[in-house]
Amino acid sequence: MRKQLIAMLSASLMFSSVSLCAADLEQDMDTLNANLKIVKKTDDAREMQQALTRMRAAAQDAKQSTPDKLEGQPADSAQIKDYHAGLDSLAADLEQDMDTLNANLKIVKKTDDAREMQQALTRMRAAAQDAKQSTPDKLEGQPADSAQIKDYHAGLDSLIAQIDVVSTLAKANNVEGAKREAAKFDEIRNTNHKKFR
C-alpha cells in the first residue's frame, strides 16, 4: 500500500515545478508530502486513515490549480489528464471505489462488446484494488491485522479473482461465458455487504 501511495504521489508531483505560482497548490503538495511521511512511518491504522483522508482532500483541492510546468496546456491535453489522473488516484475513497464497481458491473452485464466489457473489468479491478487501501466505517479502528480486516481484504481478493476469470473470457471474445461468470459478482457483493456495510 505504501509503495502504491509513493508511486501515485510521485506521478502527481512530477508535473509540479520547484517554484509553484499558486500558493494553494504548493500548500496542497506540502500537505500530501507531510501526510505521506506519516503513512510511511506509522503502524497505527487510525493515524494512517487520518493521514490518507487529509491526502485525499489535498489531492482534490490540487485539481483546482495547474502547476507552472503545465501552464498554458489545454485542459484536454495528455499532460493535464495525467496530472488529474494521478490526483484522482490519491483522492479516490471507498465510496467512489464502490460506485465505480457498481457502474462498471452494469456495463459488464449489459454489453455484447468484448472490448467494452474488458475496459469495464479493468476499471472494476482498479477500484477493487484501491478499495483495499480503505477501511469500511463498520471496521473503523480495527487493527490492520485483525480478523475482520483480513476478512474484508479476502472478500476484495475474491472479487478481484472473479474479475480476472471474467476478463480472461472477455479477452477470448467469449462474451456469453463472461456474462455467466459475471453473475457471480452479485453473490460476492451481497455476501460482503452483509458483513461490512
Oligomer: single chain
CATH class of the largest domain: Mainly Alpha
Q: What integer is the average pLDDT?
A: 82
Q: How many domains, in number, for the residues?
A: 2
Poorly predicted tracts of residues: 14-21
Tell me roughly what share of residues is in helical segments: over 70%
CATH superfamily of the largest domain: Cytochrome c/b562
Gross geometry? flat
CATH topology description of the largest domain? Four Helix Bundle (Hemerythrin (Met), subunit A)
Number of extended strands? 0
What is the name of the CATH architecture of the largest domain? Up-down Bundle
Instruction: Specify the number of helices.
Output: 9
- CA radius of gyration is 19 Å
Cα separation of the termini: 23 Å
- How are helices and strands ordered from N to C? HHHHHHHHH
Overall description:
The protein has helices at 2-13, 23-41, 45-62, 78-91, 94-110, 114-131, 147-171, 175-182, 184-196. With 197 residues, the chain is mostly helical. α2 (23-41) runs antiparallel to α3 (45-62) and α6 (114-131) packs antiparallel against α7 (147-171). It is flat, with a radius of gyration of 19 Å. The two termini are 23 Å apart.
How is the topology of this model organized?
Elements: H1 2-13, H2 23-41, H3 45-62, H4 78-91, H5 94-110, H6 114-131, H7 147-171, H8 175-182, H9 184-196
Helix pairs in contact: 1-2, 1-4, 2-3, 3-4, 5-6, 6-7, 7-8, 7-9
List keywords for this structure.
9 helices; mainly alpha; 73% helix; 2 domains; Four Helix Bundle (Hemerythrin (Met), subunit A); 197 residues
